[in-house]
Amino acid sequence: MRSVRGPSLLQPYRDLHKLFRKQLVVPATASWIFWAAPVVAFTAMLTVPILIPVLTNYPLPLSDMGRSSGGVADPHARHVLRQSGRSQFG
Fold it and tell me: Is the C-alpha dihedral spanning 9, 13, 18, 24 positive or negative?
């Protein structure tokens, strides 16, 4: 087995920086769709993850960080814990 080190944690950001610094190569006969398609695709990729917690009942993966301090932020969860006898609130 070889002891080769993998890429650092910052490698994706270095790759993005390199990508954004590249020179644009556009054909002379390109239409406006050639320019609009990447913008629409990039905007859609950013918009969908932002709207998922707003339009659905699925929260963001780390949105319940308030519960990590030992308290229960959700009043419904507090009621359920109280009914099960495992509550710290009494």
Answer: positive
Placement of tokens 């099960």 in the chain: 84
The tokens for 85 are 């006898």
CA distance 88 to 57: 27
3-state secondary structure the chain: CCCCCCCCCCHHHHHHHHHHHCCCCCCCCCCHHHHHHHHHHHHHHHHHHHHHHHHCCCCCCCCCHHHHHCCCCCHHHHHHHHHHCCCCCC
CA pair distance 86, 90, nearest whole angstrom: 9
Question: Residue 7: how many CB atoms within 10 A of its CB?
Answer: 9
Express each pLDDT in 14-70 by its tens digit.
999 998 899 878 888 989 898 899 889 989 998 888 887 677 776 666 665 555 445
